[in-house]
Amino acid sequence: AKAKAKATTKAMDEDDDDEEPEKPAAKSSDEMTVFVGGLPFSCTEEQLRKDFGECGEIEKLNMPKNDEDKPRGIAFITYKTKEGVAAALKYDGDDYGGRYLKVNLAGQKGEKGKGDKGKGKGKDGKGDKGKGKG
Question: What band does 26 get if pLDDT is binned at 50, 70 and 90?
Fold first, then answer.
């Protein structure tokens, strides 16, 4: 079954020549993207570009907003070089406009966060309630 799946993937790639170069890039973009949390809500994308642009050339900057179109205090910054990423990671824990920055590699955050939340709720929630009633 595995061999078949590989064969179909190859055939699809050959049809869409445009997509092929993007796939390896997507994987490495995680290594080139930093997650920045703890941003002041007053911080603008322009301000971020200026400050984090000092680390290295920014390829892409994404500042998610909430339903009311207000900044959520987080951003994803993709750099063109690993040096840029390394320099940005040094901002972790710095005071930035009265809030402490949390800077880490974007790929790492998702994995850690999901795991911790899942375990915590399951074990603590059910365990404590059961013991308390009995």
Answer: very low
- Specify which residues 65 forms β-bridges with: 71
63 token code pair: 């500042």
Torsion sign, CA atoms 79, 105, 101, 113: positive
With beta carbons less than 8 A apart as the criterion, state whether 34 and 87 touch: no
Query: Do residues 82 and 31 lie in contact, with contact meaning Cβ atoms separated by under 8 Å?
Result: yes
Using one digit for the tens of pLDDT, what is the confidence trace for 4-14? 555 544 545 55
* Tokens 């365990």 sit on residue: 127
Q: In sequence order, what are the residues at sequence separation of 6 or more whose Cβ sits closer than 8 angstroms to the Cβ of residue 54?
A: 87
φ/ψ region of 21 (left if φ > 0, alpha if ψ in -120 to 50, else beta) reads alpha
Task: Please answer whether residues 64 and 25 qualify as being in contact, where contact means their C-beta atoms are separated by less than 8 angstroms.
Answer: no
Mean pLDDT across the stretch 103-115? 62
Q: Which of 30, 40, 41, 45 is nearest to 110 (CA)?
A: 30
Q: Is the full-model pTM beyond 0.85?
A: no
Number of neighbouring beta carbons within 10 Å of residue 69? 6
Contact 104, 89 (CB under 8 A): yes
